[in-house]
Specification:
single chain, alpha/beta, Rossmann fold, seven-stranded parallel β-sheet, two-stranded parallel ribbon, 11 strands, 36% helix, NAD-dependent epimerase/dehydratase domain-containing protein, NAD(P)-bd_dom_sf
Length: 229
């Protein structure tokens, strides 16, 4: 059975892909509420509690880590959350598919690829680097089967908080000017949320991908001006 941790936009994209593939799954979230419509099995659990994490993941074959603390709580909480999930996956014998962004690379002037060093200077970037290094270390030590899928700024159904989410598209549909962060002429990669979900499920079902970090497929980089145009 597949277990999806989190029911935000990315978790829902993974759910959709599992449904398309007719794979058995359940969702774990803090509220216990069902995401969207349809008959979806939901387990209520606080993954910050290691015992609840183990109970929620018991019986899983593949776990999709699509949850995270609020941005302002990453420091001090994200590592503990991840360790609880890792411990639960190890106890269950489940494979772990971790969704990540690209913060760990820091500022990159050229094309991003999986071979880039982790050169982040920000707190969030360093946290991301530590989490990734920990997962891959455990995999290579034979303690855990883990694979990482990385995407850029999300856009697509249900995406609200991303820089390419509500604050970009809400003004567009109401005919107002769009406020963007940074240089609107600079090329940027945007990740369609459903492509991210599909990529994570593909990674989870492909044995040869484990032990590595992979960038999910994206369209060609464009400027923000081109993206909204």
């Amino acid at each position: 059975m597949h277990v999806v941790l989190g029911a935000g936009p990315l978790g829902r994209a993974v759910i959709k892909e599992l449904q398309l593939r007719e794979e058995p799954f359940q969702v774990v979230n803090l509220s216990g509420r069902q995401p969207g419509s349809g008959d979806i099995s939901v387990v209520r659990a606080d993954l910050m509690d290691p015992d609840q994490a183990k109970t929620a993941i018991t019986g899983a074959s593949v776990v999709y880590q699509c949850t995270q603390p609020p941005y302002h709580q990453w420091e001090g909480r994200f590592e503990r959350l991840q360790e609880n999930i890792i411990g639960a996956a190890m106890a269950s014998g489940a494979k772990l598919v971790a969704a990540e962004n690209v913060y760990m690379y820091g500022d990159v002037d050229d094309e991003m690829n999986e071979g880039l060093p982790y050169a982040a200077r920000t707190k969030k970037g360093r946290i991301r680097a530590q989490l990734a290094e920990r997962l891959l270390e455990l995999h290579h030590r034979g303690k855990l089967q883990a694979v990482i899928g990385r995407g850029s700024d999300f856009f697509g159904p249900g995406v609200m908080e991303s820089s390419a989410g509500e604050r970009m598209f809400q003004p567009l549909i109401t005919g107002k000017a769009v406020s963007v962060i940074g240089d609107p002429a600079q090329k940027h990669t945007f990740t369609f949320i459903e492509d991210f979900g599909k990529a994570l499920v593909t990674l989870g079902q492909t044995e040869e991908t484990y032990g590595e970090a992979w960038h999910v497929p994206n369209a060609e980089a464009v400027s923000v001006t081109e993206f909204v145009g």
